[in-house]
Specification:
single chain, 54 residues, alpha+beta, two-stranded antiparallel sheet, 1 helix
Amino acid sequence: MSVEHPNVIDAIGLKDAGAKIVMVVSDHLSWDDPEHIPLLAANNRGICAGPTAG
């Protein structure tokens, strides 16, 4: 998947003996693309809403 799928986590792992969760989103877009930052922001909102929504 990619940043264009706002509710998808591409990879997840644990850090510091499980004290931290690390989520990874793949990103194929150019930093020059004007939609890059808005797509990253939407992806982050989608991912972060999941755990709080139950």
